[in-house]
């Protein structure tokens, strides 16, 4: 059955691969962007997830054009890396406001319609570093660990209404975000990854479409690592 899916940050990177995977299986897919536009085969809505009014407006547009959001993929995220002693409070709160508070804004807006429909899927894109930790990423790791608490609490609040909330925790993925890393750092990371390579965005999308599908209807509050074995046990 075709569903209405909203993927934040679906204009590029992992979000785009997720959006295209849903579109390929026949779902109605909307993606957010911040002015860059989106590929022709996707429905784009402009939205900055740090702005609750913009989130509300984006949902309103998607509801009017494609119907209520049944599958929310909270994917948009940023990094602002530096070591703890150099990290300003602004650098900390900016990353939290986007990656964690942004996800809260999206989940809250999506929940009311999912409750009415008595069906919903929320998928939060976290990161292996949320539970593994990473030097220079106190802000980012905190925001990504926080998503686990968000998904598990939503599961306890809304689980009886046929609404699931799960976390996908990618390892390193070939996107603009990791293109910023030096070749030396990439080589260092690759040595730590049992798979010996970074993931492609499509490899993350597969876990997300599975969580949204009927086969995963009894999976909720889970953290699914897609990291080539990097974070085992974390
Ligand atoms: P990119 O940097 O390639 O893309 C980030 C996306 O997030 C863009 O679409 C961007 O929009 C959007 N975005 C950022 N801030 C906001 C905001 N305030 N409001 C709305 N949209 C925003 O990232 P990736 O594709 O690599 O990452 C996607 C997700 O996966 C992120 O949450 C990231 O933390 C996570 N992740 C990535 C990993 C990796 O190795 N790449 C590993 C683990 C997790 P715009 O185009 O307008 O800037």
From TrEMBL:
Q: Which EC class is the enzyme in?
A: oxidoreductase
Q: Which GO MF terms does the UniProt record name? A: 3-oxoacyl-[acyl-carrier-protein] reductase (NADPH) activity
Keyword Oxidoreductase attributed: yes
Which residues are in the Ketoreductase domain? Answer: 3-176
Q: Which domain of life is it from?
A: Bacteria
Keyword Oxidoreductase in the entry? The reply is yes
Q: Which UniProt keywords apply?
A: Oxidoreductase
Q: What is its EC number?
A: 1.1.1.100
What InterPro entries does this protein map onto? KR_dom, NAD(P)-bd_dom_sf, SDR_fam
Instruction: Name the family the entry cites.
Output: Belongs to the short-chain dehydrogenases/reductases (SDR) family.
Instruction: Please give the name of this protein.
Output: 3-oxoacyl-ACP reductase FabG
Q: Which organism is it from?
A: Phytohabitans kaempferiae
Give the taxonomic lineage as stored in the record.
Answer: Bacteria, Bacillati, Actinomycetota, Actinomycetes, Micromonosporales
This protein's encoding gene: fabG
């Amino acid at each position: 059955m075709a569903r209405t899916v909203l993927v934040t940050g679906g204009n590029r990177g992992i979000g785009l691969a997720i959006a295209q995977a849903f579109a390929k299986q026949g779902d109605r897919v909307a993606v957010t962007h911040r002015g860059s536009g989106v590929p022709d085969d996707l429905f784009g809505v402009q939205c900055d997830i740090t702005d609750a009014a913009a989130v509300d407006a984006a949902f309103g547009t998607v509801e009017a054009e494609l119907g209520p959001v049944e599958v929310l993929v909270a994917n948009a995220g940023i990094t602002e890396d530096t070591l703890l002693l150099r990290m300003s409070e602004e650098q900390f709160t900016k990353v939290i406001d986007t990656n964690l508070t942004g996800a809260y804004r999206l989940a809250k807006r999506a929940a009311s319609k999912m409750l009415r429909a008595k069906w919903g899927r929320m998928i939060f894109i976290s990161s292996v570093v949320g539970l593994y930790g990473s030097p220079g990423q106190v802000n980012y790791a905190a925001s990504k660990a926080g998503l686990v608490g968000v998904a598990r609490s939503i599961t306890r609040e809304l689980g009886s209404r046929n609404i699931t909330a799960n976390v996908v925790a990618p390892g390193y993925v070939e996107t603009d975000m990791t293109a910023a890393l030096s070749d030396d750092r990439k080589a260092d990371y690759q040595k730590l990854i049992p798979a010996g390579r970074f993931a492609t965005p499509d490899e993350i999308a597969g876990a997300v479409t599975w969580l949204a599908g009927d086969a995963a209807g009894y999976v909720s509050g889970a953290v699914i690592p897609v990291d080539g074995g990097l974070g085992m046990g974390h």
